[in-house]
UniProtKB/TrEMBL annotation:
Residue positions binding a divalent metal cation: 65, 103, 327, 331
Family per similarity comment: Belongs to the GTP cyclohydrolase I type 2/NIF3 family.
Organism per entry: Cellulophaga fucicola
Gene Ontology molecular function: any one: metal ion binding
The name this protein goes by in its record: GTP cyclohydrolase 1 type 2 homolog
Keyword Hydrolase: no
Length: 364
């Protein structure tokens, strides 16, 4: 399999256009057409990870965090980023990152945290805006059903647990082909009125390219009339953080101890304990201070995240507990998730879980 064929599997799970605008995702180093000898899944790509890939004969590193985050003007090996890139290029190793695309997936980083903590009834904490689009198009009445079916196959018309969703209306369309046209219906220079069906379907923005391809391929008109609009509807399948519930409520100390045990945490920085049971839990892997108000709004008893600053702990305002368990610690199981995704699709391929230590923070 090629690099592109393998990364397509990841992108089907976590489409890159759901990544945040500030991010740098996709193939960062290497040739997309190269044949892959083995895949190494890691949280970070450091020099020791590249060495591990060489040792295990893996020429594709799937790295959650991008090693190249801002532009490189020189590659001389003067810092750890440049040294990684140089070593990867020298050894023909490709590096691919999905970062916030996987953060925003409802089966991604935060779903994995919820799984480890045994949370149920999970949903997205902060739904991403602008992820639902609507296609309106017009087709001859006798071709409408066939066109709708092609759009459904391409991914249009799925709303929550329902598929093949659409709305149609019948009416009259008119057009007059000029001398450069090659009309399938009507004659050049004559206004034609045709019984048409207006088709309306919604879709997730990651599927736009496939849906337009299906539209043009299956529509009989030379010029296809269509409109695409971005909707304000909330999409609970895409977004940052998750919130879920414990099967049985626990007191605060017992729950924090469970977090330490299940998340392999040496230290938890937290706001005031409130002397109440923990039932609803919000989580956000990585730096999550921007979601404190969202965790309050959903009525979470505790918000587990990382990289909270001193004054941000005041924002708990005795309405919930803020728990900072560490950046690496919140995302540590992400590489396991990457292995799970690929193993389900290509079970007989050489996929390795990185054993390299990449957490830059130590505790004394």
């Amino acid at each position: 399999m090629t690099v592109k064929e393998i990364t397509n599997i990841i992108e089907d799970f976590a489409p890159l256009n759901y990544a945040e605008d500030f991010d740098n995702v996709g193939l960062l180093v290497g040739d997309a057409t190269a044949e892959v000898t083995g895949v190494l899944a890691t949280l970070d790509t450091l020099e020791n990870v590249v060495d591990e890939a060489i040792e295990k004969n893996c020429n594709l590193i799937l790295s959650f965090h991008p090693i190249i985050f801002s532009g490189l003007k020189k590659i001389t090996g003067r810092n750890y980023v440049e040294r990684v890139v140089l070593k990867a290029i020298k050894n023909d190793i490709a590096i691919y990152s999905m970062h916030t695309a996987l953060d925003n997936s409802n089966k991604g980083v935060n779903a994995k945290i919820c799984e480890v903590l045994d949370l149920t009834n999970t949903k997205i904490l902060i739904p991403q805006k602008g992820t639902i689009k609507k296609l309106t198009t017009y087709a001859p009445k006798n071709e409408a059903e066939q066109l709708k079916e092609a759009l459904f196959i391409a991914g249009a018309g799925t709303i929550g647990n329902y598929s093949n969703c659409s709305f149609t209306t019948n009416g009259l369309g008119s057009f007059n082909p000029n001398t450069n046209a090659n009309p399938t219906i009507g004659k050049i220079g004559e206004t034609k009125t045709e019984e048409e069906t207006q088709i309306n379907v919604t879709f997730e923005k990651a599927k736009e390219s496939a849906i337009l391809k299906a539209l043009f391929k299956n529509h009989s008109y030379e010029e296809v009339a269509y409109e695409i609009t971005t909707l304000e509807n909330t999409n609970q399948n895409i977004g940052m953080g998750m919130v879920g519930e414990l099967e049985n409520a626990l007191n605060e100390v017992d729950f924090l101890q469970e977090v330490k045990n299940k998340m392999n945490v040496d230290c938890i920085r937290h706001s005031n304990l409130l002397n109440k049971k923990i039932k609803k839990v919000a989580v956000l892997g990585g730096s999550g201070s921007f979601a404190i108000n969202a965790a309050k709004a959903v009525g979470a008893d505790i918000f587990i995240t990382a990289d909270l600053k001193y004054h941000q702990f005041y924002e708990a305002e005795n309405k919930l507990i803020l728990a900072d368990i560490g950046h690496f610690e919140t995302e540590q199981f992400t590489k396991n998730l990457l292995v799970e995704i690929l193993t389900k699709k290509i079970p007989n391929f050489a996929i390795s879980l990185s054993e390299s230590i990449t957490n830059p923070i130590k505790y004394f």
